[in-house]
Amino acid sequence: MNYKCWWVCFVLLINSLQVTAQAKKTFLEKYESGKQLLLKEEYNAAKTTFQSLMAPHKNNTWRPYAFYFHALADFNLEKYDGAEKTLLALFGKFPKWENGDEALYLLANIAFERKEDNIALSYTSKIRQTSVQAAADQMKGYYLNKRSISALKNLQSVYPKDEFIAQLLVDKIAAESVTIEDVRFGEALARIYKLQTPTRTRVKIAALPERDTIFVGVILPFNLSKVRAQNKPPLTQMSVEMYQAMRVAKRDLDTTGVKVKLVAYDIKDNPDTLKFMAKEGEFDNIDLFVGPIFEEEYEVMLKVAKEQDTYVINPVLNNEEYQNHQQAFLLTPTLQTQGKQTAHFAKKQWAAQKAIIFHSDLPDDIKLAKAHQEEAKKQGVEIVAIQQITTSKLNQIEEILAANTAIDYVMVASPSQVVAREVIDQMTAHNIDKPILADIAWKSFQSISKEKLSSHEVHFIAPEYIKGQNNSYDFKRAYNRQALKRKKLNNLAQPSIYAFKGYDVMQSFVRVLYEHPDDFLVKMKDHKLFQDTKRGFSFDEKKRDNQYVPILKYEEERLMLVNPLP
After folding, report:
1. How far apart are CA 307 and CA 339, in angstroms?
2. 549 neighbors 341 (Cβ within 8 angstroms)
3. Backbone angles phi, psi at 563, to 5 degrees
4. Which has more pLDDT, 195 or 456?
5. Could you tell me which residues are beta bridge partners of residue 437?
6. Which of 282, 294, 325, 465 is the most exposed place for a label (fewest CB within 10 A)?
7. What is d(CA 252, CA 174) in angstroms, rounded to the nearest whole number?
8. Domains in the chain, start-ordered, CATH in brackets?
9. What integer pLDDT is reported at residue 287 of this predicted model?
10. Residue 457 to residue 469: CA distance in whole angstroms
11. Distance (Å, rounded) from C-alpha 228 to C-alpha 225?
12. 446-463 residue pLDDT tens
């Protein structure tokens, strides 16, 4: 339903009475006729009447009004393009029209109907007449109250001086949000702008503990001499993207009362540098470490963290040797965890009793397959065959499938397109209509269509998947604006997985450690902040690698997450 402009219409009807004496009878009659048609909601007839008044004539004092009312009729017919075009023509021909604020109001109304809130607000911000501005505020409330909290956050960041939007966002958070992060954001807004604080919120939170700033040491190979190079080395690019996203998150945390200072250390593949820095006391005040990415350097940082009774978060390593290390946290699940969690998924999702496993001769694929086999057996699933497959031994796929048609699923730990196609073809040939667990590389195979992957229920193991990566508009916008310094945000650059990880680390590890320094490990286990991250984390007090392994599947050619965190 449109937000009708009758308030504006009546203002103009009153204003028009002041100039009737100046118009000839013919023009006056047409004008009055058009008004009556509008009031009767006969919009097409009204348009025809006002169209005849839009042509220039020395005695036609109604011409600007005709443009406006013609646009108003189009608006009520929901012909927004036509209404907008006529109003822009009005401003082009009569830039100093005395009722220009009413035309701005109508342009804003059109933009709101199209859900182009930024454009609408650019129009309302130009309105100067007090009475029209009051009506514009009512209209803003009508439309913006329908928008999501994330959309209002975006608008508030674009119009930080608009107290009306800030108050609307505070009220909406109180009425609808169920996250602590939003509630704290709303409290911060109310404090900054001295807004009315809602008496009730859906989420009640305790006050943040009074404590000093938490220092986060970011230990990555930035290679500062190459940071500004057009073609940065891959490790430098990864490090910069992760650090920039951490800075974006820091700004968000600042608004919620979490005091964080990022300390960046530029290191290369040289553990002696870290040893020297540690010896010189460079890390004495660090409360949490992020990085480094090489194993030998990571070992050095684990020793430093143990001495300081804190933790080291690694964004890329997934070695099983760190799985149980007291100071270590791995953002990527180890191959053992991937095998274990996919076995649990198969048992729960398909009530599996029997399965076949194929794998390549790559060491990581062998580890994944064996880990899956071991956990499947513990879950009561019989692995009727586990076979290493190479392109020279594709016939083994047919032999095994032909001999074992009564299975519940097939797992294929192989990034080979040839193997993938053969498995699908042979399952089709032997009428084995069962799901497939496969390497994430399968979704990029050009010779296997999305339709085929979907019809064969291929489930992709995706340890580096980012939840809603393509739809994380708020983060993408903040990253483009704050990290990439983009002023025009019409075409947002997609942050990398390392940017998402950097942001996640700040919003989960750093935040929970700040709020619960004495029982961090206990709080971390089930803390919603870890589950609500863009990647999704699940840790416990014993296993220090991420226990959450995303699994994806095509549904109507869209890649969907089938095992979201609770």
Report:
1. 33
2. yes
3. -135, 60
4. 456
5. 411, 459
6. 282
7. 19
8. 6-146 (1.25.40.10), 211-332+473-540 (3.40.50.2300), 335-461 (3.40.50.2300)
9. 92
10. 23
11. 7
12. 889 999 999 999 999 999
